[in-house]
């Protein structure tokens, strides 16, 4: 959760820098701000996809587990 928040905050900073035409390129990397924002948002998407996969794996595991109930 903390990495997701950091990535989104950084993406928003790059989007704002792009929107305000502060500088077209990030001064540290020389890469366009919008490219940084896109990359960071793709990282967020990957975290979200992994979270869903883990959630589904746990659900599948729970359903596949033998029942401990006795009739």
Sequence-ordered SSE layout with sheet pairings:
Elements: H1 2-19, H2 33-64
Helix pairs in contact: 1-2
What would you note in describing this structure?
This protein is an all-alpha fold and 71 residues long. Helices cover 70% and strands 0% of the residues. The protein has helices spanning 2-19, 33-64. Helix 1 (2-19) runs antiparallel to helix 2 (33-64). It is elongated and about 45 Å long. It starts with a helix and ends in a 7-residue tail after the last helix. 11% of the residues are buried. The model has no long low-confidence stretch (mean pLDDT 85).
By DSSP, the count of extended strands is: 0
Mean pLDDT value = 85
Q: Report the β-strand fraction as a percent range.
A: under 5%
The largest sheet is: none
* Shape call: elongated
Radius of gyration: 20 Å
Order of helical and strand elements = HH
Tally the helices: what do you get? Answer: 2
Instruction: Kindly state the percentage of residues in helix.
Output: over 70%
Task: Spell out the key features of this protein.
71 residues, mainly alpha, 2 helices, 0% strand
Structure at a glance:
By secondary structure, the chain is an all-alpha fold. The chain has two helices and no strands.
